[in-house]
Design goal:
The complex is a heterodimer of chains A (324) and B (550). Chain A is mostly helical. Chain A folds into two domains: 3-77, no CATH class; 99-323, MetI-like (MetI-like fold, Orthogonal Bundle). Chain A is 77% helix and 0% strand. Chain A contains 14 helices and no strands. With 550 residues, chain B is of the alpha+beta class. Chain B has three domains: 1-55 and 198-269 and 515-550, D-Maltodextrin-Binding Protein, domain 2 (3-Layer(aba) Sandwich), CATH 3.40.190.10; 69-196, Periplasmic binding protein-like II (D-Maltodextrin-Binding Protein, domain 2, 3-Layer(aba) Sandwich), CATH 3.40.190.10; 274-513, Roll (Dipeptide-binding Protein, domain 3). Helices cover 25% and strands 23% of the residues of chain B. Chain B has twelve helices and 23 strands. In chain B, strand 8 and strand 9 (209-214) form a beta hairpin. The longest helix of chain B is centred in the first third of the chain and has 25 residues, at 11-35. The radius of gyration of chain B is 28 Å and the shape is globular. Classes of the chains: A mainly alpha (324), B alpha+beta (550). At the A-B interface, helix 2, helix 3, helix 5, helix 6 and helix 7 of A face helix 1, strand 8, strand 10, helix 4 and helix 9 of B.
C-alpha cells in the first residue's frame, strides 16, 4: 500500500475514532448522575427556580441530547471547543496551558520508565531465577499492585516532609509570580511527580520484556547460536535485543493511555496543574465542554502513540513491513 | 530453567545496581541542585507574608457573574460590599457608611463612605453600586435579586434600592455581593480584577496559587500582612506542606485533627454549618415538584408527629457528634443555633429513650409481634433515609441515626444515592439535609408553606399557618431586631413552632460542625464571628485583624 493511501486511511480512522469517542463520552456524561448545574453552583447553594431555569437555557441544557451533541460537534468542526463552565474561559486555552505541563511530565516518565524498564527486563530474563531476577520481579509485582496516588503520597512524605529535598506539590515555588519562576525551580517541582509516574511505569515494561526475552533465550535459534559458540553477550546483541525490542517499543507507545491515566492520579496528589488533574476537576464539576475537549485530545494522543508504535514496529521488523 | 546458568552474561549483572545508582544520583542531584535558592518553599518563621492552604478555593475567580461571592466571606479579600458581618453577626456598614429602611420596608437607602477607592485610586461611586446590582439582576443566575425592582442615585453618595416586596434578609445579598467598578468591568475582569478590598491580586496561577498584595488605597484598617499566598493543594498535600513547615494556615479535616504538627496549633472554630434529617410531613400518595420536576410526596410513618417527636427527643446528639465528627462539633437543635435569630428555648435534653418510647406508645405505636420495631394499625414504624454516598459525613450520620433509632423501636433503612437521585426521591423519604448561613433566609426557604414545590425548598412539605405568619412578618420587618423577634417566634412561640422539644420537627437538626485549622503558633486570627459554611473562606472575615501575638 502506498504511503499516501496509508495516511488517508489512518486519518479516516482517526476521524471515525474521534466521532465515536466523543459520542460515547457525551452519552456517558449525559447519563451520569451529576447535574452540571448542581455541580457548578455547589451542593449547599440555594438556587431559585428562576435562576435554575435561566442557567439551563444559558447552557443549552433545555435542548434534547442529540441537539446538544450536534451543536457541540458543529462548533468543533469549526475549531471551537466551547467555553469551560468551570473556568469560564475557552476550553482550548485551558487545555493549551495544562497540556504543556502534562506533556513534560509524561514525556520524562515515559522515557525513563521505557529505558529503565527495558534494562531491568533484560537483566531479569538473563538472570532468570537468580537473586537479581527476584528483586526485579518483586519490584515489578509490588509496583504494579501499587496505586499511583498511594506511591505519590509515600514519596511526598519521604522526600518532601522527612528529607525536605523537594517541595510539596504545585509547579512553582510558593508566593512567587509565575513570570519570576526560573527553570531550576520548575525542574525542582517536577521531579517527584515524574518519579512517581516512572516508578510505576517501569514495572509493566520490565515484566513484559522479561517474558519476551525469556522466550527468545529459550528459542531454537538461540540454542543453535549457543551451539555455534556465540558468547552470551553476542547472543544478546545478535538475537535478544532485536527480537525483544519490537514488542517493548510497541508496548511503550501503547503505554501512552496508561501514562495518561497515571498522570491523572499523580497530578492530583501533587496538585500539579496538568491535564490529568484538570480532567478530574472537569468530570467532578460537570464541565461537559472541558471534559469532552480533554477526552478528544487524549484520544488523539493515544491514537498518535499507537500509530507511532506501528511505524516503529515496521521499521524494526521486516516481517511487519512486508505485511503492510 | 536448566540453561539459565549458561546464559548469564557479565554485563547485565552490573546493570541493575548501576541503574538504581543512576536513578538515585539523578534524583538526589536534581533535588539538591534545585533546592538551593528556593526562598518560597523553605520552612517559615514569623514574617509579613502568609502562606495558607485552606482547600479548594478555585472557581469563579473574582467575578460575581462567575459566582464569586456565593461562598461566605469569599469576597472579603479583594472586594468590599455595602454591608458586612461583624463578630456578633450583626450587619454593619462596609462601603455604606449608613443605611435605613423605609416604614413600608420597600425602600432601602444607603450612604456611601466618601473615602472608598478602587485599587487603581479612582473613587467608588453610586454608579458602581447601581451597575453591580443591575448587572447581577439581569444575569439572574448567580444571586437571587428577583425581589429587587430598581435603584436610583439620589446624589453622589446616596443610593435608594426599591423592592417589589419586603425582604429583611436582603442584608445577605448586601453583604455577599462584591461591588464592581462600572468603568473597568468586562469579560476580562477575572484577569485584572480591580476591587475596593484590603488586597489586590498580584498573580493568579490557575490550579496552583493565588498571590495577593496589600491594596494601598484600602479605606479600612491596614492589614499587618503585606502578602498572602493561597496554595491550591489537595488535603494530603496541604498537610504534608504543613509538616514540612512551609505554610502558616492549613485546613484540617476532622480525621486529621489528632495529628501533631511542630510549630502549629490546632484551632477550632464554631460554625453555623449544620446537618439534619428532613422527614416528610404528609401521608404518602401525593404529588409535588422539586426543581420543576414532578415527584412523589409523603411517607405514612414520618407523617405521624409522634414519630418525629420520638426521634427528636430520643436521638442522642452528643453521641452523634462523638461518632460522626470525632467530637469536633456540637449538638444542633435548629438551623440557626448560636445566631442572633436563634430562639434558645428550642434547645432541650435529648437521648431520652424512655420518653421517646412513651411518646410512641401514647400515639398508639406498640411492638405487638416482638420484632423490635413498633407498629400501629398493622404498619411498622419503618422508613428510608437517603444520603449522598460521596459525602462521608452524611453517610456516617445516616448510619448512626439508624442505629440509635433502632433502640426507640423505629427501623430506618439507609440508602446511598446521588444528589440528583435524592432530589427526586427526597420528598417521599427522609434525607440527610444541611444548611447554615449568616442570615436567616434559609428559615423561610425550609419552613414556609409558601415556597413548597419551588426549588428544593421545604422538603418535608411542611405547613403551619402560625409559623407562616411569623415568617412573613420576619421578612417584612424594617429592622433586624424586629425581624429576629419573628424568626424566634417561628421556631417556638410557647404554643407551636417548627423547632424545640414540642415543636413540629419536620426537620430534625442534629449536629453543627467545627472548622479545624492548623495555624502557626502565635498567629492571631482576630475576633472571629461564628463561621459560615465552607471552610475555604470562612476565616477571612477578620483578615485585616490578623497579626502575630507577642
Amino acid at each position: 500500500m502506498a504511503l499516501g493511501e496509508l495516511t488517508v486511511l489512518r486519518l479516516l480512522r482517526l476521524a471515525t475514532l474521534l466521532a465515536g469517542v466523543s459520542a460515547l463520552a457525551f452519552t456517558l456524561v449525559h447519563a451520569s448522575p451529576i447535574d452540571p448545574i448542581q455541580a457548578y453552583v455547589g451542593a449547599d447553594v440555594g438556587l431559585t427556580d428562576e435562576q435554575y431555569t435561566r442557567l439551563r437555557e444559558h447552557w443549552g441544557l433545555d435542548r434534547s441530547p442529540v441537539e446538544q451533541y450536534l451543536a457541540w460537534a458543529g462548533s468543533i468542526l469549526q475549531g471551537d471547543l466551547g467555553v469551560s463552565t468551570l473556568y469560564k474561559v475557552p476550553v482550548s486555552d485551558v487545555i493549551a496551558t495544562r497540556f504543556g505541563a502534562s506533556l513534560a511530565l509524561m514525556g520524562v516518565a515515559w522515557l525513563s520508565s521505557g529505558v529503565l524498564g527495558y534494562a531491568l527486563g533484560v537483566v531479569a530474563a538473563t538472570r532468570r531465577g537468580r537473586f537479581v531476577d527476584r528483586v526485579v520481579s518483586w519490584y515489578s509485582y509490588t509496583l504494579s499492585a501499587t496505586p499511583t496516588f498511594w506511591l505519590g503520597i509515600v514519596f511526598l512524605v519521604v522526600f518532601s516532609v522527612w528529607l525536605g529535598w523537594f517541595p510539596v506539590g504545585l509547579a512553582g515555588p510558593y508566593g512567587v509570580p509565575s513570570d519570576e519562576v526560573g527553570f531550576t525551580a520548575r525542574v525542582h517541582h517536577f521531579v517527584l511527580p515524574a518519579l512517581t509516574l516512572s516508578a510505576v511505569g517501569v514495572a509493566n515494561i520490565a515484566m513484559h520484556t522479561r517474558e519476551k526475552m525469556t522466550d527468545v533465550l529459550n528459542s531454537d535459534y538461540v540454542a543453535f547460536a549457543r551451539a555455534r559458540g556465540e558468547s552470551p553477550g553476542q547472543i544478546l546483541r545478535n538475537h535478544g535485543f532485536r527480537n525483544s525490542a519490537a514488542p517493548a517499543v510497541t508496548l511503550q507507545f501503547a503505554y501512552f493511555s496508561e501514562l495518561f491515566g497515571g498522570s491523572v492520579l499523580a497530578e492530583t496528589v501533587f496538585s500539579y496543574p496538568g491535564l490529568g488533574s484538570t480532567l478530574t476537576e472537569a468530570a467532578l464539576g460537570g464541565d461537559v465542554p472541558l471534559l469532552l475537549g480533554i477526552v478528544l485530545i487524549s484520544a488523539v494522543f493515544v491514537f498518535a502513540g499507537n500509530t507511532i508504535a506501528d511505524v516503529v514496529n515496521a521499521a524494526l521488523d521486516p516481517r511487519v513491513r512486508s505485511r503492510t | 530453567m536448566p540453561h539459565d546458568d549458561e546464559t548469564s552474561p557479565k554485563k547485565p549483572r552490573r546493570a541493575w545496581p548501576v541503574a538504581v545508582a543512576v536513578v538515585a544520583v539523578v534524583a538526589v542531584v536534581a533535588g539538591v541542585v534545585t533546592w538551593r535558592g528556593q526562598s518560597g518553599d523553605q520552612a517559615r518563621s514569623r514574617s509579613a507574608e502568609l502562606v495558607v492552604a485552606v482547600g479548594d478555593v478555585s472557581g469563579g475567580e473574582f467575578d460575581p457573574l462567575k459566582g464569586w461571592g456565593s461562598r461566605p466571606a469569599q469576597i472579603r479579600l479583594i472586594h468590599s460590599s455595602l454591608l458586612a458581618v461583624d463578630a456578633n453577626v450583626d450587619f454593619v456598614g462596609d462601603l455604606a457608611a449608613a443605611y435605613s429602611v423605609s416604614d413600608d420596608a420597600l425602600t432601602w437607602s444607603f450612604t456611601l463612605r466618601d473615602d472608598a477607592r478602587w485599587s487603581n485610586g479612582e473613587p467608588v461611586t453610586t454608579q458602581d453600586v447601581i451597575f453591580t446590582y443591575d448587572t447581577l439582576k439581569k444575569d439572574g443566575t448567580r444571586f437571587d435579586l428577583s425581589f429587587l425592582d430598581r435603584m436610583e442615585a439620589r446624589d453622589d453618595s446616596r443610593v435608594d434600592f426599591h423592592l417589589k416586596e419586603p425582604r429583611s434578609t436582603f442584608v445577605s445579598q448586601l453583604s455577599d455581593i462584591p461591588i464592581l467598578p462600572a468603568k473597568h468591568y468586562g469579560t476580562e475582569y477575572s484577569a485584572d480584577p480591580i476591587g475596593s478590598g484590603p488586597y489586590v491580586v498580584a498573580d493568579y496561577q490557575t490550579g496552583q496559587q493565588l498571590i495577593l498584595e496589600a491594596n494601598p488605597y484600602w479605606y479600612g484598617q491596614k492589614p499587618e500582612f503585606t502578602k498572602l499566598t493561597f496554595l491550591f493543594l489537595g488535603e494530603d498535600a496541604a498537610l504534608a506542606a504543613a509538616r514540612a513547615g512551609t505554610v502558616d494556615i492549613v485546613y484540617a479535616p476532622p480525621a486529621s485533627a489528632g495529628q501533631h504538627i511542630d510549630g502549629m496549633d490546632l484551632r477550632s472554630f464554631e460554625t453555623v454549618d449544620s446537618r439534619a434529617l428532613t422527614l416528610p410531613t404528609l401521608p404518602s400518595g401525593g404529588k409535588g415538584k422539586i426543581r420543576t420536576n414532578e415527584v412523589s410526596v409523603g411517607d405514612d410513618v414520618t407523617a405521624d408527629p409522634a414519630i418525629r417527636k420520638a426521634l427528636n427527643i430520643g436521638l442522642d446528639r452528643e453521641e452523634i457528634v462523638q461518632i460522626v465528627l470525632q467530637g469536633h462539633g456540637r449538638p444542633a437543635y435548629s438551623l440557626v443555633d448560636g445566631l442572633p435569630w436563634f430562639n434558645d428555648q428550642v434547645a432541650f435534653a435529648d437521648g431520652r429513650t424512655e420518653d421517646a418510647k412513651r411518646v410512641l406508645a401514647d400515639a398508639g405505636w406498640s411492638d405487638a409481634d416482638g420484632d423490635g420495631t413498633v407498629e400501629k394499625d398493622g404498619r411498622a414504624a419503618a422508613f428510608t433515609l437517603l444520603y449522598p454516598s460521596d459525602d462521608r459525613l452524611r453517610s456516617d450520620l445516616a448510619l448512626t441515626v439508624a442505629e440509635q433509632a433502632r433502640a426507640l423501636g423505629i427501623a430506618i433503612t439507609t440508602k446511598g444515592s446521588t444528589w440528583d437521585g435524592i432530589y427526586l426521591d427526597g420528598k417521599a423519604n427522609a434525607v440527610t439535609w444541611g444548611g447554615g448561613r449568616h442570615h436567616p433566609h434559609q428559615l423561610y426557604e425550609m419552613y414556609s408553606s409558601k415556597v413548597i414545590d419551588t426549588g428544593y425548598n421545604n422538603m418535608p412539605q411542611y405547613t403551619n399557618t402560625t409559623v407562616d405568619g411569623y415568617l412573613d412578618q420576619a421578612l417584612s420587618a424594617t429592622t433586624q431586631d424586629e425581624a429576629n423577634t419573628f424568626w424566634k417566634r417561628a421556631q417556638w412561640d410557647g404554643q407551636t413552632g417548627f423547632a424545640g422539644e414540642d415543636g413540629d420537627a419536620p426537620i430534625i437538626w442534629l449536629v453543627r460542625l467545627d472548622h479545624l485549622y492548623f495555624v502557626r503558633a502565635g498567629l492571631d486570627l482576630g475576633d472571629q464571628p461564628i463561621q459560615g459554611h465552607g471552610h475555604e473562606w470562612a476565616l477571612f472575615n477578620t483578615l485585616v485583624q490578623w497579626h502575630w501575638a507577642n
